[in-house]
Amino acid sequence: MKYFKKIIDFYVNLNIHVAIASACLVVISAYNSNLQPIAYSEYFVFFSTLFAYHFIRVFESCECTYKVILGYLKKQSFMVLGSIFIAFIGTFYYAYSVGVRRLWIVLPAALITLGYVIPLFKYKGKRVSIRNYPRIKLLSIALVWSILTVLFPLQYQLSEPQVWIEFVQRFFLIMALAIPFDIRDMHIDAPHLQTLPQQIGISKAKQVGILLLVLFFLLIFLKYPLNLVSVFAELLVFILSLLFLVKAKQKQSKYYSSFWVESVPIIWWFIILVFVALKSEVASFG
Predict the structure, then answer these.
(1) Using CB atoms within 10 A as the burial measure, which of 66, 93, 95, 254 is most buried?
(2) Mind listing the pLDDT tens digit for each residue in 225-241?
(3) Where are the domains of the chain?
(4) Mean of all residue pLDDT scores within the chain
(5) What CA–CA distance (Å, rounded) separates 274 from 167?
(6) Burial (CB count within 10 angstroms: exposed 0-12, middle 13-18, buried 19+), residue 84
């Protein structure tokens, strides 16, 4: 059990889990919209997410100076440095494979990610990052994930209504799933950040999250033609996300948000695979 825990810690701490979740969302977007994503988009999203989360962790842990960052990296284990290097190489390799001309749509997401930890903005006379700017952290996270996992892979079909429905659904879902993280971090987030739980309390923040999840599910019925596999899969994702949201608390397990909540996209893709397999079995009997 001790070794299994070490494996899970390694898997989560190196951001592999969240990177797999982001890649799953790319595939889900294509399936739900019944559209073909651009080639290698899921691989680019996987490695760029892996690199972005390492980047955020480095810049959150030290000052934005070359010497301090270099000193921080020297203290890291070989595994961490190896993961950063692989993420960096993978991001640029698949950026080349996707094609630079197709990366224009991820530019806003990249700029938001840079601004998330680098103090590019002014608040009350001080330079702050998006992470430390009041009220916008949740919105920035949802926007980045929605751009990266919906608009980027489906950029050739932006004229299709189902792409924008998927985008809004993803935005609502990510916002709802981010609330348990804000609840967890209430005791370490500065009061001026005014995160949703800080502004309106944990109970009302959960109510907002429930509303977002309801909207996430109901929006699927605007898509045409309606994919029954997607409907049933999203119903289960709605129920699962609702349970994670309702059960969230300040003193939560180490793995509650960073493993279980972040597992939702992976479970979602697994549910779709199971339903597709069952549908094929039923069709073969028919």
Answers:
(1) 95
(2) 888 999 999 999 999 99
(3) 2-285
(4) 88
(5) 24
(6) buried
